[in-house]
Structure formats: structure tokens, C-alpha cells
């Protein structure tokens, strides 16, 4: 579809193409303007969109169990959509009650409001008369919201959030900023959000997720040409199973040998943090990497050997505090012997000289945890500028702020933050979170599906190992770095989802997570 400099095959189905696209409010406005300029009547599109929404509501909330539906109507076309939904559900036999706390409506919305009233559907300015409804539809604001909700709408939204009935938001939960996902003072806490036409970027920002509920895309057949005309080459994309699987699993030639399948060096662990090294090793194991070497302080070598019999465990001299003091690789081996190096989990900041050494190597380097903390101490940007080879940084928001104190705050706009960090540093930056975002200097990928089961000590270590193993293999197969990092993030979160399905969200400790990684590949 798009003219991406990417190894991904041209995606085939419309569904797959559409589900990768992510837009800002302005881009959506421009795309809609093209459709209307092409001759599509606005009212016809509203009918079509609302018909699709009504159909999904009937599937999810059958009249037998949900006889009465409350519809919240705003002044713009989001409200117009809601009124058409109200009318269609009325004709399907539901009891409909409308709340519209606005006196001035856009023309098409006003016209639909008039018709709804003429059908005898009650329309109130207050929310209280809707208290007995079994489900609500939130059509207050869509991507046209420009400022925080003022009285009385803010109070109506707060009241609605106190009630326990399910809420379906049309396009976005009203009160959420379309681009940053910020809650503008107050917002509807939806059970479902039906995003219309194309994914709005705000729905993929962590700060919106408590409000979005289950998100699904309602495809109303936006012509691909109109999307292409506005986005040209898309800078921001959603990771889909197809995009991830285009690079995974990494195919092997029948006549390959272990050194052709990538040799990863992990540098991790300390006497204080042994488990992190083991988890990183187990993550790397699942990647299928041909050779795995793990450098750890001498004193914890037996522990690693017991857990990872296939790995070459390199015991290194250690500081008094039990951190690696210096890398002591086996004879005839130096850092050029490896296809990739992953460094950081459990190191402690006492291992600073090690980081200096790996920064000077010409191998692709993945830094996580204390690797990032030491990099921040060394000065992120100037240190990375001296590097000859690619670097992948995998911070969570706290580490990100230490690394990039002068960029966009990741708590206000994660996607803008990760883009800025990649642009400044030249590194591939993977910002961890509920919706992990991965950027290089040109593109951003967002992982749209995960589970809070992963919010648990050690799950990031598993990702570092997995990522390291994949990058070591990708290097030998010439797969671009950004794609493989995005695929690793997808794989990791899918393992969490599978594990949580089997064992509940409480049952996914980091070791268990490593045991589910292979199941993801088997089931895709
Ligand atoms: N009618 C159609 O053909 C289509 C409609 N769609 C729907 O239309 C929506 C976008 O419509 P609009 O552009 O009318 O936007 P909204 O329905 O979000 O409403 C914006 C209107 O409210 C005003 N406003 C913004 N913030 C406000 C605030 N805090 N307090 C009070 N007023 C405020 C604006 O000045 C504008 O008039 C989409 O989200 C979607 O629901 C499209 O998705 C699909 C096509
Ligand atoms: N609420 C959440 N939903 C989904 N994934 C999450 C959530 N919280 C954390 N994660 C994921 O869990 C991992 C945590 O990594 P990290 O913060 O480095 O922890 P640790 O260093 O203890 O391993 C990351 O991959 C992150 O994306
Ligand atoms: K809405």
C-alpha cells in the first residue's frame, strides 16, 4: 500500500492495510475533506457509519437483555452519528432515551435531533432521566473536541462515570484529546470504543487506556487513495500480527550452522541481581539464536550454568560490590566475535567501565536497565554520537526521563517523546509501557495489544534477551532493525496475553512468561 522503505511484503487485504494506519485529528479531517470533495454526501456517510455502529450494538447488547439504551448527544457530527444510532435502535424495538445538553447544534445534527423528537423519542438536557438505561452510547464529542468539557457536560460525564452500566463511545471517549490521549479534565470511561474509519493516535497512548475500554475499528470504506494522498509515506503505524509475522519466525536454511544463526553476547547480572541475568538468558533462548554467550560476575557463573546449560557462561572478575569489573572473554574472542550485544539487566551502575567498552564496539548494541542508567550518567546524546554501529535503547518512562531529560515528557505524549528521542540520538528507541512505542529517525511502530499481567518485575529482562537474540539473527539475515524490534515487542506481549489467558493476570511471573514465548510462534 504505502511506499515504505521496508522489507515487509505488500500487504494484501484491505483490513490489514487499514488496521496499520494511525492518524492525527488533522489528518483525519484532511482525509474526510477529500471524501466529501469527491462527492460523498455528508449525510449519507453519517447514515452508513451509524448503521455499522447500531449493528455492533445489537450484537453486543441484545434487546432481550438490554431493553433500554441511553444516548448522549453532542453538538457536532459525533452527536449526529449518535442520533442516527438512536433512531435505528428505536426501529429495532429498543426503548431509547436521549440526553443532549446543548442548545446549538451543527445543521445535520439539528436535523437528526428534530426527526428523533418527531418519532416520540424523549430528549432531555439532563442525565438523570436516563438513570434506568441498561447501556449508554457516548456521542458527545469525537475527533473535533478542542478544549476541556465545560459545565454542564463535565458534570454529566462525571455522573455517567459513577454509574455502573456499560458505555459505548463513538470514535473516542468524549473528553480525550485525539492526538495525545490526554484526559481534558474529565472524560467518559467507556466499556467499548468504536473508532471510526481509521485509528486515532490518542487511542494508542497509555494515558487514554483507562477510558478507552475495548477498542475496535469500524471500517466505513475510506478509499485507500485518499489515505495515501494525506499520509504519503506513513510515519506512524500499528503493529499487526501480519506485520510482526512478516519477520517472525526467522526462517532457516536447511544447510545452516549455529554461527550462521547469530551469536549473541549478553552482559548482565551482579551478585545482587542474579535473577535478571537468568531471565534475560531465557528470553534469548526463546529467540532461537544460534549461539548464546552470557558474561556475568564470576561468583554467579554456577547459577547461570545450571539454568542455561546450552549457553557459554563467561565468568568475569568482579568489584567488591559484586558487579562485573571487566569483561574477560575467552581466548581468541573479542567483541567482534558477536553479531549483537545486549547489556544491562541486573548490572548495577558499578559496571560503568563495561559500558564504555561495549559502546566502543562496532556491533549492534541493545541497552536496557542499568545499561541505560550508566548511559544517562555518561551523557546520552554525545556518547551515542560516537558510536559506529546501531544502538537500541529499551527504557520505561522513568529511564527515558533520565536518558532524555530535555525532550517531550513521555507522560504527556509518549509517541511524540519516542520520536523526538530517536531523532536526537539516532538510536532505535523502544519506550516500554502498556502500548509500547518503537521509533527510529523516520518511523514509529506502536504495539496495540498487551496485558497488564506484564507489569511485573523481570518481564522487561525477558524482552531484552528476546530482542538481543532476534537482532543477532536479523543481522545475519539483513532484516532492518526497526522491524525486528517491533516484532520482538509484539511477540513479548502476545506471550503475556497467552499466559494471562491460561493463568489469569496474576499468574504471569517473568519465568512463566519465558515459557509462553514459543507458544506464540506455534499459534500464529
Ligand atoms: N458525519 C459524517 O459524515 C461523519 C462523521 N463522523 C463523526 O463526526 C465526528 C467529528 O465531527 P465534528 O467535527 O463535528 O466534531 P465533534 O462531533 O467532536 O464536535 C465538535 C464540535 O463541538 C465544538 N466543540 C469542541 N470542543 C468543545 C467543547 N469542549 N465544548 C463545547 N463544544 C466544543 C466544536 O466547535 C465543534 O462544533 C467524528 O468523531 C465522528 O463521530 C466521522 O467519523 C465519519 C463521517
Ligand atoms: N500495564 C501494562 N500493560 C502491558 N505491558 C506492560 C504494562 N506495564 C509494563 N508492561 C511491559 O512489561 C515490561 C516491563 O519492563 P521493565 O519496566 O523494564 O521491568 P523489569 O525491569 O522489572 O523487567 C515492558 O515490556 C512493558 O512494556
Ligand atoms: K464520543
Automatic annotation (TrEMBL):
What is an annotated GO biological process for this record, any one? metabolite repair
**SUPFAM superfamilies, per database record:** Ribokinase-like (SSF53613), YjeF N-terminal domain-like (SSF64153)
Catalytic reactions of this protein = (6R)-NADPHX = (6S)-NADPHX; (6R)-NADHX = (6S)-NADHX; (6S)-NADHX + ADP = AMP + phosphate + NADH + H(+); (6S)-NADPHX + ADP = AMP + phosphate + NADPH + H(+)
Binding-site positions, (6S)-NADPHX:
77-81, 142-148, 171, 346, 396, 461
Q: Where does AMP bind?
A: 432-436, 460
Q: Which domain of life is it from?
A: Bacteria
Residue ranges of the YjeF N-terminal domain?
28-228
Q: Name one GO molecular function term.
A: ADP-dependent NAD(P)H-hydrate dehydratase activity
- Extract the InterPro entries matched here: Carbohydrate_kinase_pred_CS (IPR017953), CARKD (IPR000631), Nnr (IPR030677), Ribokinase-like (IPR029056), YjeF_N_dom (IPR004443), YjeF_N_dom_sf (IPR036652)
Q: Which UniProt keywords apply?
A: ATP-binding, Isomerase, Lyase, Metal-binding, Multifunctional enzyme, NAD, NADP, Nucleotide-binding, Potassium
Q: Which residues form the YjeF C-terminal domain?
A: 241-524
Q: Which Pfam families match?
A: Carb_kinase, YjeF_N
- List the cofactors: K(+); Mg(2+)
Q: Does the keyword Iron apply?
A: no
Paste the cofactor note.
Binds 1 potassium ion per subunit.
Q: Which residues bind K(+)?
A: 78, 138, 174
Q: What is its EC number?
A: 4.2.1.136, 5.1.99.6
Quote the function comment for this protein: Catalyzes the dehydration of the S-form of NAD(P)HX at the expense of ADP, which is converted to AMP. Together with NAD(P)HX epimerase, which catalyzes the epimerization of the S- and R-forms, the enzyme allows the repair of both epimers of NAD(P)HX, a damaged form of NAD(P)H that is a result of enzymatic or heat-dependent hydration.
Q: Which family does it belong to?
A: Belongs to the NnrD/CARKD family. In the C-terminal section; belongs to the NnrD/CARKD family.
* HAMAP family per the UniProt record, alphabetical: NADHX_dehydratase, NADHX_epimerase
Per its record, how is this protein called by name? Bifunctional NAD(P)H-hydrate repair enzyme
- Gene name as annotated: nnrD
